[in-house]
Amino acid sequence: MVRVRFAPSPTGALHIGGVRTALYNYLLARQQGGTFILRIEDTDQGRYVPGAEDYIIESLRWVGVIPDEGVGFGGDEGPYRQSDRKEIYQKYAHELVQRGHAYYAFDTPLELENRRQAEEHFTYNHLTRSALINSLTIGEEVSKRRIATGESFVIRLKVMPGRSIHIQDLIRGDVVFESSELDDKVLLKADGMPTYHLANIVDDHLMRITHVIRGEEWLPSTAHHVLLYEGFGWEATMPKFSHLPLIMKPFGNGKLSKRDGAKFGIPVFPLAWKGETAEESFDGFREVGFLPGAVVNFLALLGWHPGGDEDIFSMEELIQLFSIEHIGKGGARFDYEKAKSFNQKYIHAMDDAALATLVRPLVEAKGYQVSDAFLSRAISLMKERVTFLTDFVETGYYLFEPVRVYDEETLQKRWNGDIAAVFAELTEKFATFDLFKAPDLEEAVKAFIQEKGMKPGDILPLLRIALVGTMKGPAVFETAEVLGREETVARLKRMMDNQSVKS
Q1: If you classify domain 259-349 with CATH, what class do you get?
Q2: What is the DSSP letter of 159?
Q3: pLDDT band at 380, cuts 50/70/90?
Q4: Which fold does the domain 86-207 belong to in CATH?
Q5: Which of 166, 194, 296, 491 could be bridged to 199 by S-S, CB 3.0 to 4.6 A?
Q6: Which helix (H) or strand (E) holds 154?
Q7: List of residues 6+ apart from 421 with CB closer than 8 A
Q8: CA separation for the pair 118, 112 (Å, rounded)
């Protein structure tokens, strides 16, 4: 059975690239009837950020990438938080020493720093370890005595030179590393906590992970991981590796970073994150007004496509179509305009009642009190014109409160004494219309305009400005119907009062 994991570190807000990694793992698991696991890799306690773990879980829930096992979701292979597995890693680290594939190293941080200062390109490896303080140079008995006295030590992987390490990556094909170029990675730190390399391999083995799908930044580490699998004798259960292409900046070169959100004015996190400073606080796709389905669709196509011209897929369709082999090797540009286009299409396709459920919290956050019936009518009127959920209350604020600002430039060109008199008469007629429905209003108003010997262009733009403040916006008569007779008449009078004050 396919078993995959998403293993983020709780060091801050989860980058949108991490969500893509989780999504690809999830799609493979669902397609193959397998298991998707959330594992929290928090071995680096110095970088742990309170709240980050909850943020990761909430982000996955929001996009609908729900783990079968893991932190916050239960399961039989736990604990799923690495800081709760410390004794497990220690056991395996010492076992690797006994197998001859790792060794104890007693060099202090100061000693290593002095060595680096003396040698510009110093690396702890097969060339240098014989001149350093470790169990390979001082012997097993001396090492045991030093450990017994409480002396600080680390455990390092013993990398032997002279071999080519082949990795069959499902995306990149055969990737080769020369062991002579690898360093002796620290596996167990002086504080007894494992490094990523040891914890990652031990957990993947014990949790029976069959496929590792992660970012390409981890590809160079995979050579060490292969050596670890071999050192433990776990070659037969080594997972298949897939290293995803980078997500690139929307403009220019380089990998998309968390700073690019502020730089380009775009979200690069799934949810908003409140940091200690303004510079460490970010908006998220959710708060900007994206639907989770649109974000999933957008992320799925950042580096993968099933072929053909179609680009709108439901989660169910993505599960059916997904294949690792169709993931590209090259970086995928973060096309925010494409993301906006997806969101617009998803909003347009969504049922009004379902949209109302999502929009109501935004409406109430602004202090607006409206009925379900009115909100549904407002959404139906606006949804062909919005890109984000927030547009319903930002761009379309005029459906929930009086117009704040009028298009004065257009009013100056079109408003005069004759028009004012006709507009006042039309306002009185609005108060008497029996049927306040868009078709009836349109018929009556156009008849009135014709009766006055005027053109629609003389009156309708002014009517629109009175109702919404701008020449842009939904159809004028549909807007009047949603606002209702009382509010429509009040807005027409308010604009006339505004113009009379200026004249």
Answers
A1: mainly alpha
A2: P
A3: very high
A4: Glutamyl-tRNA Synthetase; domain 3 (3.90.800)
A5: 194
A6: strand 154-157
A7: none
A8: 10
HSE of 502, CA atoms in CB hemisphere, 13 A: 14
DSSP 211: E
Q: Which helix (H) or strand (E) holds 102?
A: strand 102-105
Helix-then-strand count for the chain, H and E: 21, 12
Residues 6+ apart with CB under 8 A from 250: 256, 260, 264, 266, 333, 334, 335, 336
Q: Which residues are catalytic?
A: 258
Cβ(386)–Cβ(355) under 8 Å?
Answer: no
3-state secondary structure of 383: helix
Domain boundaries, the chain: 86-207, 259-349, 350-390, 402-502
Tokens for 171, please give them. Answer: 């995306």
- Whether 41 has a pLDDT exceeding 90, the answer reads yes
Distance CA 319, CA 316 (A): 5
Q: Among residues 391, 416, 165, 370, which one has the least CA distance to residue 288?
A: 391
**Reduced 3-state DSSP string for 400-415:** CCCCCCCCHHHHHHHC
Fold of 350-390: Helicase, Ruva Protein; domain 3 (1.10.8)
CA distance 290 to 258: 18
Q: What digits encode the pLDDT tens for the residues 257-298?
A: 988 988 899 999 999 999 888 788 889 999 999 999 999 999
pTM greater than 0.90 (yes/no): yes
- Rounded to 10°, the helix 476-483/456-468 angle is 40
Common-topology check for domains 86-207 and 259-349: no
Class of the CATH domain delimited by 402-502: mainly alpha
Q: Is the distance from CB of 124 to CB of 184 less than 8 angstroms?
A: yes
